[in-house]
Amino acid sequence: MMRTLAAAVVGLIANSIALIVGAIVLDKMTLNGLGFVVAVVVFTGTGLLVEPLIRQSAMRRNQALLGSTALIATLVALIVTVIFTDGLQISGGLTWIMATVIVWLVALGARLLLPLLIFKRVLAEARDR
User: Fold this and answer.
1) What's the DSSP call for residue 30?
2) Which of the residues 3, 5, 68, 110 could staple to 14 if both were Cys, CB 3.0 to 4.6 A apart?
């Protein structure tokens, strides 16, 4: 239970950072203040639901696509977030492509680094035992 909660917190923070970086880097990607919180929750939830489905489909149909499932899931999550929330807007084909890559890459890096920063004390205590 605690592990799932910790993973959810890390995922929400990582996606928040990724969306903020994307909005800073890309002129045609914007975040709106209060809607940002809803956008992060929708983006994270959509990613959690869609990625396993895409991965499963890739395993059945074409395993060469297996490595790109996270990118596809990021794109789908961005599309759903833009459609169903007012917190995120993206315009222009190149911006959609760049937003997908940037958000995926930053979120991946944040998911790798955040547990080390957030749970540093817990990891140190576990190492000492």
Assistant:
1) E
2) 110
* Among candidate residues 35, 116, 105, 96, the one with its CA nearest the CA of residue 70: 105
- Whether residue 34 has pLDDT greater than 80: yes
Output the pTM of the full model: 0.86
**22 CB-near residues (< 8 Å, 6+ apart):** 29, 99, 102, 103, 106
**What's CA 69's distance to the chain center, in Å?**
13
**What does the block give as tokens for 105?**
């890459």
In tens, the pLDDT along 81-95 reads: 999 999 999 999 999
Q: Give the 3-state secondary structure of residue 20.
A: helix
| Spatial CB neighbours of 13, under 8 Å, sequence gap ≥ 6 | 110, 114, 118
Cross-strand partners of 30: 89
Helix extents (H) in the chain? 2-25, 33-61, 69-84, 93-118, 120-128
Q: What is the DSSP letter of 119?
A: T
- 70, 118 contact by CB (below 8 A): no
